[in-house]
């Protein structure tokens, strides 16, 4: 299938720089947070804090001064959503969606986050999944045709608790229907002018289009490295005969910047109501979630659907613990 890449509007993106900087600062503080499956399903017409709002449509909706602390807004379109003055403390977002919301005066965005992603980087592919990242001077940003990392193509950034490290995930290429690679970059001591190291991973094949990295968790490992868990989701697997899919990837980034795949798992599901994406409409299949239990163990949560009859769907949840094979 031919890949069609989206056009880049620098003029519009410039208007969102301040919003994007604030957003990723918020994300950076989410170094340890349980997945939102423990949250009750929220009401879209009257969203409340600490609720799961992933089923809602908020494009252009007026949510000014709303208390949305701890709410899950991952994976939904927030284009021109009015979040001015809203309390977004510990809320969960997807990197590519929040950059187009209005966030002036939003609460709960800590000052440390103002440092996150304040620069932009030229990313050059060197072949064999190798990349070069260099700081791009502001006066050249609008003029270059190079692949630029920063703003809405950095999926998530995470300040690692009890360390001076920040882990960020960057996409390559910058825009498009298929992601060639995810670049894992590590920054140190709040110096975000340039990562101290970066490595890449290719978690998907070219049958998966428009993937969304909906959640990342980072933990300090017992060997001094970093455990990085990433959940990637999509709802566009027509060539695979599915309605939606999840993939979990658990990585180890060593202190010397060696990137190792420790664990991966893939699940998919189909719907008897095409075009919908709500849990009660899945006909069969599974979805995945995870959390770090400690520095060497990950818990994988699998939610399974099966069709019992034309009107009844059975859903069950199972959990398993994965012991990570760390490189000491």
Topology:
Elements: H1 10-15, H2 17-28, H3 95-98, E1 121-127, E2 130-135, H4 138-141, E3 147-149, E4 154-159, E5 165-172, E6 181-188, E7 197-201, E8 212-220, E9 226-234, E10 244-253, E11 259-271, E12 282-294, E13 297-307, E14 313-323
Describe this entry's structure for a reader:
The chain has 328 residues and is mainly beta. The chain has a domain at 204-328. 8% of the residues lie in helices and 36% in strands. The chain contains four helices and 14 strands. It has helices at residues 10-15, 17-28, 95-98, 138-141, and strands spanning 121-127, 130-135, 147-149, 154-159, 165-172, 181-188, 197-201, 212-220, 226-234, 244-253, 259-271, 282-294, 297-307, 313-323. A seven-stranded antiparallel β-sheet has the order 8-9-10-11-12-13-14, with no helix packed on it. Strands 4-5-6-7 form a four-stranded antiparallel β-sheet. The chain has a three-stranded antiparallel β-sheet with strand order 2-1-3, with no helix packed on it. A hairpin with a 5-residue loop joins strand 8 (212-220) and strand 9. Mean pLDDT is 75; it is low at 1-36 and 110-116.
Main beta sheet = 7 strands, antiparallel
Give the overall shape, derived from the CA principal axes: globular
Radius of gyration: 19 Å
What average pLDDT do the residues reach? 75
| β-strand number | 14
Roughly what percent helix? Answer: under 10%
Low-confidence stretches: 1-36, 110-116
């Amino acid at each position: 299938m031919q890949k069609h890449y989206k056009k880049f509007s620098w003029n519009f993106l410039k208007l969102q720089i301040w919003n994007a900087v604030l957003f990723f600062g918020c994300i950076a503080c989410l170094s340890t947070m349980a997945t939102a499956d423990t949250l009750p399903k929220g009401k879209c017409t009257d969203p409340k804090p600490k609720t799961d709002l992933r089923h809602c449509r908020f494009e252009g909706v007026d949510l000014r001064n709303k208390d949305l602390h701890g709410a899950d807004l991952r994976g939904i379109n927030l284009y021109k959503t009015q979040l001015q003055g809203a309390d977004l403390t510990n809320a969960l977002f997807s990197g590519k969606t929040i950059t187009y919301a209005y966030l002036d005066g939003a609460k709960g965005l800590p000052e440390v986050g103002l440092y996150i992603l304040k620069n932009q980087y030229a990313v050059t592919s060197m072949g064999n999944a190798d990349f070069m990242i260099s700081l791009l001077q502001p006066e050249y940003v609008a003029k270059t045709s190079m692949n630029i990392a920063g703003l809405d193509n950095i999926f998530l950034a995470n300040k690692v608790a009890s360390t001076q490290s920040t882990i960020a995930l960057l996409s390559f290429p910058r825009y498009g229907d298929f992601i060639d690679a995810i670049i894992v970059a590590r920054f140190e001591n709040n110096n975000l002018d340039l990562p101290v190291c970066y490595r890449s991973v290719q978690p998907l094949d070219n049958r998966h289009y428009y993937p969304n990295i909906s959640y990342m968790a980072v933990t300090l490992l017992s060997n001094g490295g970093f455990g990085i868990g990433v959940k990637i989701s999509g709802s566009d697997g027509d060539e695979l005969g599915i309605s939606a899919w999840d993939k979990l990837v658990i990585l180890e980034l060593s202190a010397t910047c060696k990137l190792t795949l420790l664990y991966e798992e893939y699940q998919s599901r189909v719907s008897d109501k095409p075009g919908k994406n709500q849990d009660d409409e899945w006909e069969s299949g599974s979805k995945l979630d995870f959390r770090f239990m400690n520095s060497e163990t990950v818990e994988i949560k699998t939610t399974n659907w099966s069709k019992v009859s034309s009107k009844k769907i059975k859903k069950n949840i199972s959990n398993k613990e994965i012991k990570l094979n760390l490189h000491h």
